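Q: Give me a protein?
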Amino acid sequence: MFHVMFSLPCLYVIARFLWPMPWALSAKIAVAVLLVLASQYHLYCRFSSGSVFSPEFPRYVVMLFNWAFGAILLLAVLQIIVDIGTLLTMLVRRQTLSIPANLRYVVGVAALVLAAIGVQQAVRVPPVKDIQIAIKNLPPQFEGYKVLQLTDMHISRLFDASWTRAVVQQSNALGVNLIVITGDLIDGSLSNRKQDIEALRDLRAPDGVYVIPGNHEYFFDNQAWMQHFVSLGMIPLANSHTMIEHDGARIALAGVTDVTAPKTGFPAPDLQKAIAGIAKDTSIILLDHQPRNAEETATHGVALQLSGHTHGGMIFGLHRLLALANGGFVSGLYDVGGMQLYVNNGTALWPGFAIRLGKPSELTRITLRRAPDAK
């Protein structure tokens, strides 16, 4: 079903864009074959590693497939827009119209160019995004405290060792107090990714580097990966918390497992367990890979939730659809019943669809501020 679903845009492009072109039949057939081959990128990923989430090809091949696959999807969307526009015009004018070949060429070139830009935006080392978040009950000593959020790194053949090293170097230069990684660090088995992820060993922050699992960790032996993260110097928070001390004051940093964990036999997210024992009126920062349960979380006294998972929607417009699957949350800062929720666009994204247009990746440096009503 997965591969059939991703074949539908290709079939639409062949039927509505390619076949009406004024080309020789042999040319149409040749292009149609190329389109079908490109549309089966995820099937080739399964052949390469046994998983659609781990393409084990050279980086330039993964980029090429993402460009071709992305161009097909964008072309399908643009063709649908043209078809709807033509149909509405026909209804208004009450006459039959045909789509000029020149318009099809413009649409085709636009899809190819946009896909190339989208891949370039996706694979770059992300720029720094500085935000300030005011949270309740923040001790005065934590005013101006800086947290770096990394999320959805999806370290893989696309986001490889050199990319990871560059992210680590830039992260270490930001002068933050604390680093948190909110899941989906990897795509691939430990044996395939060990060298690509090694640079994370060099992440440094005075108050530590903390990590929670995302849904992708459960695709590739979560237990082995979490143990490896510990060996790299990260501190896992799986339905647990720790106290962060700064200038004699303390706040709580808690983390939960991913909502998909029970599907692979691991504990479900348990917020009550994660925050058990935290004193009342203590500021709690929660790490939760997916933002969908934020409204429930807000009723438990959490001051700030940091999430990822959505990749910001990847493409402007598409983000509206992805919000529907994530409790209405997809990108940026939300006030949820007095709790602040930040949904990060992601440090990278899934190499199976590495396209960004209008929803850039980010290295997110968060400066904590005291909310006006804080005591």
In short: Residues 96 and 166 are 56 Å apart (CA to CA).
